Amino acid sequence: MQSHSRCLSISIHTLDCKTIARRLCKSAGTASFVRVHLKPEILGSRTRQLATGNGKRLKVWHAKMVPAKETVLRMSSSSIPTLLYFIYATACIGESSGEIKKDEKLYPENFTRILDRLLDGYDNRLRPGFGGAVTEVKTDIYVTSFGPVSDVEMEYTMDVFFRQTWVDKRLKYDGPIEILRLNNMMVTKVWTPDTFFRNGKKSISHNMTAPNKLFRIMQNGTILYTMRLTIRAECPMKLVDFPMDGHACPLKFGSYAYPKSEMIYTWTKGPERSVEVPKESSSLVQYDLVGQTVSSGTVKSITGEYVVMTVHFHLRRKMGYFMIQTYIPCIMTVILSQVSFWINKESVPARTVFGMYP
User: Fold this and answer.
1) What 3 state SS string does 113-133 have?
2) Taking a C-beta distance cutoff of 8 angstroms, is the pair 343, 332 a contact?
3) Of 102, 135, 154, which residue is a domain's last?
4) 23: domain range?
5) Tens of pLDDT along 197-242?
6) In a domain, 17, yes or no
7) Quick check: 177 and 129 in contact, CB under 8 A?
8) Is residue 111 part of a domain?
9) Cα 186 to chain center, whole Å?
10) Residue 275, in any domain of the structure
């Protein structure tokens, strides 16, 4: 007796691998041939599911079907596993470099996993290279506002961006982005240098509208940490040459707890370019800011020897200001006080006016 072959037509409107496999395997048990319609509206999806059916372990690994138009396949039910393999192979071969990059989109969950992995087992109480190499912290300063300068209090104030860079190999990572740009919340979870200003009277870290801090992690473990600070520091002055004097106001900073055997400081861009003071940042009334010089040294104490970085801001007093404010008024007062002696002694009212003026 002749057997009649039965052909079943099915349409696939989804890229859910589980659904595809279930329908194909179900068809395999009821028909000799299966006509499969692949609809073009399922473009661009990507699945992450495994599927089984009819006792056959059919698996689809991230199948991505990219038909230009609706595709019709007529095939034997025994060839269903081959169809699934064909779908997978076509997707893999058809992916271009642009599609691969698209697949590596900057999904937030990817970076959440990177950060969680970086902080897993991380101890922010220990400096990088603890027990081994010395930690090198590179620094540079950008001055946004310099002044005022007080002769009475012998101090000066300035607004700066204070940048520090170091390498923490514990924070190395592999990922689709070279730099992780993070906010200030990450600062509290990793080790940061305990830098302080040795001659500072008062320093303010700005927190409006949020803490003014920049934190970045590079793939090789390099850390960039920037803060916006307002610093009021002492400036020793010798006023014996007033008002033709000049002063060098220092800014000294270094580590509070780590001696030079554990942590050192260097200038990021070298001594010449690591401290930037734009001309528009200084508008002092009594002084001209003529330049700045940097240096580094060490200071010894009973707890160890520490690296100290120093910036000297060179000030020169404005003669024009004091000529107008001090010299010319004094000269005019002396001259006017002598005029009364040249007035006729009988002109009492006039002599009285000039006599009372001084």
Assistant:
1) HHHHHHHCCCCCCCCCCCCCC
2) no
3) 102
4) 7-102
5) 999 999 999 998 899 999 999 999 999 999 999 999 999 999 888 8
6) yes
7) no
8) no
9) 11
10) yes
Strands 263-267 and 135-150: parallel
Residue 87 burial (10 A CB sphere; 0-12, 13-18, 19+) = buried
Closest CA to 137 of 32, 229, 225: 225
| Co-location of 88 and 172 in the same domain | no
SS3 call for 289: strand
Kindly state whether residues 251 and 124 are assigned to the same domain: yes
The predicted model scores a pTM of: 0.65
Tokens at 314, concatenated: 């060179």
- Residue position matching structure tokens 């009212």: 349
Residues 136 and 280 in one domain: yes
What gap in Å lies between CA 35 and CA 27, rounded to an integer?
A: 10
Distance CA(178)–CA(64), nearest Å, equals 28
Residue 190 lies in a domain: yes
Same domain, residue pair 134 and 267: yes
CA distance 94 to 90: 6
Cis peptide before 209 (omega within 30 of 0): yes
Q: Do 235 and 330 fall into the same domain?
A: no
Overall domain count for the chain: 3
Span 99-111, pLDDT tens digits: 444 444 556 677 7
- The answer to whether residues 297 and 346 belong to one domain is no
At position 150, the amino acid (one-letter code) is S
Give the Cβ contact number of residue 30 at 10 Å.
10
